[in-house]
């Protein structure tokens, strides 16, 4: 970390991103590499005059504390944004799985009704059709079970991410005071 001096007021303002999935970008945010900006100081809850006194005092420990508090606040904001983005992606996946399960259940119901309507037939063609439909029903049932397992995992992930978002927002609020 660069020591805070009059000349070292620099930020890497370029927001870097990490691709997690085609639709999800994680924003890592700007890195504070010198004395925090006025807006960072205000967001962290510092009195600007007090912060300037700390900066001018030459007390390296106090300066490091100011910089670290601003970094924690910035990091918490960006982590909350990342978690919110991930939360939306997880929510979308849960909705997709629920929709797919509903469609599969409709298909299974329709196939079972078709099988029931031809039960009395002894014709070989009808029996082959019934067997084919039963295979499709088994495949649909297997896919539904797989979706339910994935749905269960995604629901747990959703709750974990939601807890993280709430915690990071709590940190952000307490740092901003």
TrEMBL record:
<feature type="compositionally biased region" description="Acidic residues">
    <location>
        <begin position="1"/>
        <end position="18"/>
    </location>
</feature>
<feature type="coiled-coil region">
    <location>
        <begin position="87"/>
        <end position="150"/>
    </location>
</feature>
<protein>
    <submittedName>
        <fullName>Uncharacterized protein</fullName>
    </submittedName>
</protein>
<feature type="region of interest" description="Disordered">
    <location>
        <begin position="1"/>
        <end position="24"/>
    </location>
</feature>
<keyword id="KW-0175">Coiled coil</keyword>
């Amino acid at each position: 970390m660069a020591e805070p001096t009059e000349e070292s007021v620099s930020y890497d303002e370029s927001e870097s991103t990490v691709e997690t999935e085609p639709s999800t970008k994680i924003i890592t945010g700007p890195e504070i590499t010198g004395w925090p900006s006025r807006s960072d100081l205000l967001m962290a809850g510092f009195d600007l005059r007090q912060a300037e006194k700390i900066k001018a005092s030459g007390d390296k420990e106090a300066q490091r504390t100011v910089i670290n508090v601003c970094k924690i606040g910035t990091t918490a904001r960006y982590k909350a944004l990342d978690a919110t983005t991930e939360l939306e992606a997880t929510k979308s996946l849960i909705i997709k799985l629920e929709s797919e399960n509903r469609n599969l259940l409709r298909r299974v119901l329709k196939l079972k009704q078709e099988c029931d309507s031809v039960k009395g037939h002894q014709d070989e063609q009808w029996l082959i059709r019934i067997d084919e439909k039963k295979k499709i029903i088994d495949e649909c049932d297997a896919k539904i079970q797989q979706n339910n397992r994935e749905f269960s995992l995604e629901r747990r992930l959703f709750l974990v991410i939601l807890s993280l978002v709430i915690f990071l927002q709590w940190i952000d609020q307490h740092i901003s005071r």
